[in-house]
Structure formats: structure tokens, C-alpha cells
Amino acid sequence: MTVEFDGRVARSGWTLQVDQLAIAEGVTAVIGANGTGKTTLGRAVAGLDRLASGRLEIAGAVVDDPAAGVFVPAHRRRAAMVFQDLRLFGHLKVIDNVAFGLRRAGADRASARRQAGTLLERVGVDSAAWPRRPAALSGGQRQRVAVARALAPEPEVLIVDEPLASVDSSGRARLRSLLGDSPARHVLLITHDPVDVATLAERVVVLDSGAVVGRGSPAEVTARPGCEWGATFLGANVVPGRARGTSVTTEAGLVLTVASEAEGPVYVTFPAHAVTLHHDRPAGSARNTWPAELERVDIDGKRARVHLAGPLAVRADVTRRSADELELRPGLTVWASLKATELIVVT
Length: 347
Description:
Layout: E1 3-11, E2 14-23, E3 26-31, H1 38-46, E4 53-58, E5 61-65, E6 70-71, E7 79-82, H2 94-104, H3 109-123, H4 139-151, E8 157-161, H5 169-180, E9 186-190, H6 194-200, E10 203-208, E11 211-216, H7 218-223, H8 228-234, E12 236-250, E13 255-271, E14 276-278, E15 288-300, E16 303-309, E17 315-319, H9 320-326, E18 333-338, E19 344-346
Parallel strand pairs: 3-9, 3-10, 7-8, 8-9
Antiparallel strand pairs: 1-2, 1-4, 4-5, 5-6, 10-11, 12-13, 13-19, 14-18, 15-16, 15-18, 16-17
Helix pairs in contact: 2-3, 2-4, 3-4
């Protein structure tokens, strides 16, 4: 069962062109710089934007085909979308926001509310908030309510646009788990967060200038991202660990010094170009050093991407000149280093 998208969405002075994109079941991350068409792609799948030309199928059923005069409106598609601005119904209580889709599908009020309560508990919204209006909740709570509302009708396709942007650390972990185990067959995860990609995505779609420039598994797209923005974004390393103050202990036991304080489970992210390589242990300003074995060296023009094994299985980007001077090759043991200021702690 797939989502088949082969078409064009036209807006004033701008066009999104999607050529033969097949989205398989599971979580697909949609990434790209601002203005490249990520949200438009999601809106088209959800039935909120019409195709100007082409064809869109969901699970074998044609839902948009202008040439054939076919357009299935949003409320008749098995698709739901969580928007960046959430769009909760301000006049409805929290519990009734989540029950709304169930009532439209024919459930009675009591049954819809019971199911809505179960979902609200799963996303971490306390029952004390259920009788309130959305305006009385924090931004993170509203985000959780929006996810619960989208999941309630058990959609075939769930589109989530920056789902963790305003959620606190405990909420992020809970929602990541919920999205990873979503009952929806297809989850389109529109995100700017490399942790989302590393922890959730089975496939990645890269957009640039209104077109799909990269697609495939995270490893495939990391190797061929299709644009400079994608290369930089997918070059980010994501390392899980446990923080205490300005120290993070990784799963392999390596202690990293970071610039900001945190407590508990975290992810540490840093770009591949922040990792420097040396034959001997460096004695400079970098506070994080470790021995690493080179697994693979990929040369791309003036750049070399180096895959490291050891306490941290990460990537390093160095210049072709540096790779030649260090005589980098698979099996070589080097010292890797990172400055604390290059590390971002994500809770």
C-alpha cells in the first residue's frame, strides 16, 4: 500500500513539481529549507491543495486527477494533518476537539469522548485539561492535543508538520514514541530536526526549489542528498546519551563535554564538518577527543566524508586535501576531536 504522487501544485508565482514519488508504509521524513514546498506537499496529500496537473493515489484509490475530473475532498480522504499553527477549534473543549473526527465518523458522544480520553492520556495531556478550551493550555499541551485529534479517526495517512516544535522534553519523547508506533499506515513527517530523522524515519524525501531532489532510505539520501542544504542537514550526527550538567555520557560510555547544562536522557547533535581528525591525540582547545577506526572514506569532488567506528559511530567531513595529507583509508586508526561549542543538546 503506497501513496503515489506524480503531479504539480501551482500557486501565485511558485510551483511544486513532484515526479513519480511513491511513499511506502511507515515513517517518511520530508525535509528541505524553508519555502521549498514541504507543507504544500503535505497539504496536497491531505486534500487541502488541489493538483494543477498530474495524479495522486492513496492506497490504490485516485484522490486527485484534474484531467479525469477527480478530486476527493479532505473530509472524505483517510488522511489527517497536524499543522504548524495547530488550528484547534477554539470554541470546543479539549476533549471535544479530539472527539470531533470520531463524531463525524458516526460515533456517539459518549463513545467518542472515551476514545478521545484514551488518546489524550497517551500523548500526555492530563485529564484536568480536558474540559478546558485550547486557549487555556500551554503551546506544548496544544501541540499534543492536535496530534491526538489527528490520530483519533485512525487515518490511512498522517501528515505532521513540525510536530515537536513547542513541546517540552518529556513530551518530545512521548510523541516520538507515539508517531513511531502510529496506527496510520503512512506517516509524513515534515521536520527541520535531525533527531526526528535519526530516530523515526525509515525513508527521507528532500525538497529543493519546489522539486524532489532526493529520496530513499536515510543512508541512501545521506550519500546522495541532491542539494547543498540536504547535504548539510543530513551530515548532522545524532548521538543518544544521558546528561548531567555539562557532561553527556554516551551509550558506549564516552563522556562528552557540552556547552549547555541538561539532566536526563538527551540527544547530542553536531555537524559532520565539526569533527576534526588527527594522527596523534590533539592537545589544542577541543575538549572532546577519542580514538576512532575509519570504516569508509567517500570522496566527492573537493570533500571527503569519513565514516568512523569506535566509541562514537559518526561521520566526519574533511577537505580532499586533508584526506590526502592524513592518508585516510579504511582500517586506519585516528584521533577524532570536537569542541564543546559545536555540540547541541536536544532533550
